[in-house]
Amino acid sequence: MRLMLLRHGQTPSNIVGALDTGRPGAELTALGHAQAGALPDALRGETISAIYASVLVRTQLTAAPLAESRGLGVGVVEGIEEIAAGELELRSDKTAIAAYFDVTAAWIHGDLDRVMPGGPNGHMFVAGYDTAIANIAATHRRNDALVLVSHGAAIRTWVGIRVGDIGSVEGRWLANTGMVTLEGDPSAGWNLVQWHGEPLGGSALPDVAAHDVAGAPLREAVSENRAAG
Fold first, then answer.
1. Residue 84 DSSP label
2. Which pLDDT value is given to residue 203?
3. How far apart are CA 206 and CA 149, in angstroms?
4. Which domains can be identified in the chain, with CATH numbers?
5. For 113-128, how does the pLDDT look when each residue is reduced to its tens digit (9 = 90+)?
6. 3-state SS of 158-221?
7. Kind of pairing, strands 145-150 and 189-196?
């Protein structure tokens, strides 16, 4: 099975660097809509059997143009939403950002007992994402190719844990409409095929100081996270 984990388009929270993880979450900016609208052309060479999105509205808006171009619906599923920020929700200060990414880095390194302040531990996050992927996979054939529109921190953390190669995650970032492609299945495991950190669907964030709240801060914040983790 081919699993394409696509990060949503740009949101207002991305621009200001806010940890926006609650429901329903921010909608897309004009650039975010443009990025979503560019996906059908960007992925024209990919076979796509089905498209899924998280319960947060920004992923559904990102998925819509691609789904329409392929004549597919968008399945909205629990479990692939962004990692809840808990007490850090909607904060954009460096202390909060560092704390958030320090926890996700700990999970990637195997410390799933670590708790997000006021939020989940790593076991809870992985169980939810695993269950969502397993339920989706159970409805498809082994050679199907699936697009899941999810969130940067969730994608980056789950891939780091399940691919089992920390080096495949550390030092990498995932822009809005960046995509990580895996092959495998829930029982046999997953192999990393490609990490496409740059946007598939248009320009990167215009404000290079704004971190990627969905799991990969831009370059300055990546360095901070690496030092902390």
1. P
2. 64
3. 22
4. 2-228 (3.40.50.1240)
5. 999 999 999 999 999 9
6. HHHHHCCCHHHCCCCCCCCCCEEEEEEECCCEEEEEEEECCCCCCCCCCCCCCCCCCCCCCHHH
7. unpaired
